[in-house]
Amino acid sequence: VIDLEMASGGNEEGEEIFVSDNSQDTHHFNSLVGHIENIILSDEFVSLRENFMKQYCHLFSDEEENKLEYTDIYNRYTSLIEGYIEKELSARERDFKMSAFLHELSQRHSLDGEVFDLLLTFTDFVAFKNAMLETKE
């Protein structure tokens, strides 16, 4: 997998110029993302996450002010999901540390896709709340 980022280079014709980063760090990051993708697409993970969301989504409302109980639910969610992904990644990748991966993830600015949307739900409360509200609908 090659990490492509659009580079802005004063191109007057509006052409897109792509820069490829083939560094070992990028290769390792992309390998981890591939593992995470396999994990979150597994039946076991989908069931785990859906059951959690369905269990608590009725408590969420689309109001600007957040209830105190949301924090507890969010903490349970991040612990459950992060713990599951970390356990599965540790089985696939020696010396894996979730905290180091999340730090690296936060340093990358142009990440799109379902994997990153899901990861965002345990690093961003607003994304989590939106996922809960979508489940509620």
Automatic annotation (TrEMBL):
UniProt keyword Mitochondrion present: yes
InterPro entries per the UniProt record, alphabetical: ARL2BP, BART_dom, BART_sf
Family: Belongs to the ARL2BP family.
Lineage: Eukaryota, Metazoa, Ecdysozoa, Arthropoda, Crustacea
Function as written in the Swiss-Prot or TrEMBL entry: Plays a role as an effector of the ADP-ribosylation factor-like protein 2, ARL2.
Pfam families named among the record's database cross-references: ARL2_Bind_BART
Start and end residues of each BART domain: 29-136
Origin: domain of life: Eukaryota
Swiss-Prot/TrEMBL keywords: Cell projection, Cilium, Cytoplasm, Cytoskeleton, Mitochondrion, Nucleus
Keyword field contains Cytoplasm: yes
Gene Ontology CC: centrosome; cilium; mitochondrial intermembrane space; nucleus
BP GO annotations: maintenance of protein location in nucleus
Localization per record: Cytoplasm, Cytoskeleton, Cilium basal body; Cytoplasm, Cytoskeleton, Microtubule organizing center, Centrosome; Cytoplasm; Nucleus
Name of the protein: ADP-ribosylation factor-like protein 2-binding protein
